[in-house]
Amino acid sequence: MRLHKYQALGNDYLVLHDGDPALLTGPRIQKICHRHFGVGSDGILVAGLHQEDGINLRILNPDGSEAEKSGNGLRIFARYLWDQGLVGDKPFVVQTAGGRVRCHVQDHGRLVFVEMGAASFSSDRIPVLGPAREVVAETIEVNGRRFQFTAVTVGNPHCVIPVEHATPSLAAECGPPLEVHPLFPNRTNVQFMQVLDQHHIRIEIWERGAGYTLASGTSSCAAAAAAVRLGLCVSPLTVEMPGGQLTITVGKQFDLTMLGPARKVAEIEMAREAMSD
Q1: Are strands 255-261 and 111-118 parallel, antiparallel or unpaired?
Q2: What is the pTM (predicted TM-score) of this model?
Q3: Residue 113 vs residues 79, 190, 253: alpha-carbon distances, Å
Q4: Predicted confidence (pLDDT) per residue in 30-55, tens digit
Q5: Taking the CB of the first residue and of the last residue of the chain, which one, N or C, has fewer CB atoms within 10 A?
Q6: Residue 171 neighbours by CB under 8 Å, 6+ apart
Q7: How, if at all, do strands 200-207 and 237-241 pair?
Q8: CA pair distance 187, 58, nearest whole angstrom
């Protein structure tokens, strides 16, 4: 099995294009993504068929579950397709379980622009339990602490929590119980968001199925959308994370675009014994 490793702001993925995706059982995904017993990654991107309505993409988390959408993963996938000569300098469409997006590789591969679709705060779409509503500035409790949160979907679920100081320790302590909180039947990604000014936020991320993460494109989009919805910021926004920065625009209907880098790391041939269960 041949894998191509890329990273986007420290969020790293392995791309599988020509191999047999049936080999990717849950235990094998966990082993491949393990930092000590495998190659190490935040997930695996599985390329599907090129069709008239776009290129299919599956996104596998390191715990073996499947994600609907990944912003960093989409930028990496777009850069991989560009490196392989499968796309050129014009925009192209990628189909994910979280919706259809349009990608455009720019600046000789150094930057990727992605139209991420529209954010929604609807409890039915995210989903969040309870009556049908927009989940904005509600209260949630974990580990004896009370937070105000806004839930949003950008094709996958997010819980955005404004805080005075966003820290890795806060994400590590409160991210895990928030991910699996009973309010979120499909679990959730978590962002602790610190507003720096009207166009600039900083977030710490606990990612569903992956844990503490240096950067996340969908998390950046969700946090930016929540910041605008709450009246804390105006578009465009620079989203700062431990791994680097992304530029997010939020339209009047909460349609989102993302601009950021993706870099190639290596090409890897998995040894047969490494794939054994």
Answers
A1: antiparallel
A2: 0.91
A3: 10, 24, 19
A4: 999 999 999 999 999 999 877 667 89
A5: C
A6: 190, 192, 204, 205, 206, 212
A7: parallel
A8: 19
Contacts of 55 (CB under 8 A, 6+ apart): 47, 48, 49, 81, 86, 92, 93, 94, 95
Residue 62, pLDDT above cutoff 90 = yes
The token pair at 8 is: 């986007």
One-character DSSP codes across the chain:
-EEEEEEETTEEEEEESSS-GGG--HHHHHHHH-TTTSS--S-EEEEEEEETTEEEEEEE-TTS-EES--HHHHHHHHHHHHHTTSS-SS-EEEEETTEEEEEEEEGGGTEEEEEEEE-B-BTTTTT-SSSS-B--SEEEEETTEEEEEEEEESSSEEEEEE-SS--HHHHHHHHHHHHT-TT-TT--EEEEEEEEETTEEEEEEEETTTEEES--HHHHHHHHHHHHHTTS--SSEEEEETTEEEEEEE-TT-EEEEEEE-EEEEEEE--GGGG--
Both structure tokens of 224: 């930016």
- Distance in angstroms (rounded) separating the CA atoms of residues 250 and 119: 9
